[in-house]
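Ticket #4471: structure output looks truncated?

Reporter: J.K.
Steps to reproduce: submitted the chain below (81 residues) through the standard prediction queue, then opened the result file.
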Amino acid sequence: MLRRPWSCARIPGPYGDPPAPAAVIERAYLPAPEEVAAEEEIVKAAAADAGAPALPDGRFVDAAVVAAARRTLSIARAHRA
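Returned output as attached by the reporter:
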């Protein structure tokens, strides 16, 4: 199960109780399409290179950046379905 510490299901009080505001709050924390595209680029670079992956623009990313990109993509995919 995906752990979402920011999930509005855990927000007490008037902001997290009703379902309609909860959906709005949760959508506000989802990654933007541009962010998803950037994270997909990082994951693709990591899959293509076993060492320190390089992005098309020449930037290198390490294992922590790749892990964060995978985490962001899993959140985006979980809410897309």
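Triage note (M.O.): checked the attachment and the full token line is present. The helical segments are 19-28, 33-48, 63-80.
Status: closed, working as intended.
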